[in-house]
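Might you be able to consider the sequence and fold that I enclose below?
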Amino acid sequence: MNGIELVLISLIVFVIAYKFYGGYVSKILEVNNKNQTPSHSLNDGIDYCPAKAPVLLGHHFASIAGAGPIVGPVIAAGFGWIPVYLWVLFGAIFIGGVHDFSTIIASVRHQSKSIGYLIQSYVGESGKKLFLIFSWSTLILVIAVFTIIVSDTFTNIPSAATSSILFILLAIIFGISIYRLKVNLIIGTTIGVILLSLCVLAGYYFPIQLSKIGWQLILFLYIFAASVTPVWILLQPRDYLNSFFLYALMIGGFVGIFFASPSVNLPAFSSFSLDKVGYLFPALFVTVACGAISGFHSLVGSGTTAKQLDKETDAKIVGYGGMLIEGLLAVLSLVAVASLVNKEFIDILVNKGPVAAFSLGIARFLNSIPLLNISIEAGQSFAALAVSAFALTSLDTAARLARFMWQEYFETFTTKNINSILTNRFVATGITVFVGALLTFSGHTMSIWPVFGSANQLLAALALLSLTAWIAYLKKETKFVMIPMLFMFAVTLTSLAMLALTNFNSANYLLSLISILLFLLAVTLGVKTYKVLVNLKFLS
């Protein structure tokens, strides 16, 4: 098998899926532009703000991508390239795309509230509180871990720090130009992308060097500001411009594949079990994560994206299309490492990590393009910078989403004065960032990280659970969300049970307890939803 064949097959399959299966889901959900979206009806210029489809796709894709579709498939490639490739294709089309698209539409139909609000409406108040607590806690973990990842990157690659700071300043100028000065989007984008490239070059010539702790403190100040700032000033334009960074990486990688014509050197299938990863089931479906489906997408879709959706039909390209683009990125990641000799891949993965393996594969593809004349070293730096840029995007998006979760939890608090304080966006953000900082400086963040993969996919299962209840309430066909929901519950419950047992045997009782609590949460909400479906006479 050749890398070109893998890319062409996935591209053709995804285009067909977008047209037909995306259209099928759109028909069931009765997507209609006659329905006014909350970005217009609740426009507050801070969180609710309509965005054109290309801009919103850029924000959504940049937010959901992060490092997930790169790191996950690279690690899972240890099982062999066939299991990863098939899961990315079928997962993105029938599970991830459905999950993301349906979540956005469901949120928009409920004032762009979170999945927790859906659970409250169709499962019950206690279900909502459990979900919001779980979601907020998961996002705190994301904040802590990604702060460490980004600060490590900035410390080790000072040029990335300079470029990232310049990206932020450029985004503010771009947002003001588009929304206040009414500059044409095409003209603004063209100038913005050119300046984005200059920011990358400036990073190489003017690297900023600080200590790891120094960068962490700056990052916490930044995500606080990013969370409370109107979305059109910073978050939306930065993610939009950053998306071109990743598009360039993907286009360059795919073009390079056609010139390099790489062989697939990894085994088609190697083992049912990997050290530190686990058994093929459920580890494959948890490890690949964002490349096929991710619960984090439901938080983004019902958090920032739904509040910016200009019209309902945009949800197909943003939600379903965004997931398929991420699937293509996962395929590119797989082909990049599959082109390495198996021993070389294993050595780099063990000693330098998945990003280094991905960067080397991409660098070789870029180096094969005759007109560009990009060296291997420059290609590796470019790929690593792209990954770090999107890790930063996921970081500030997670902070804003956590603020939304906190506000929704306390918005129905009975005491008015306490309600107004706890739902204030500055207070909610301050508490969120403070707890994230405590976890970061505690030194225990990375030891809890293995549970995050299962927690993330549990979020997807719970989102699909709430979607099933909502669509059943509407008296519509639910198989397209119910079957993925059942599969994801099987994956996460099995994974959590195995994690609980493994950590208990290793005397890591904290991780074992967290796994058990997540397991019980999933079962509790599952039972509650089952009773709802029975009452609706949807199940006998």
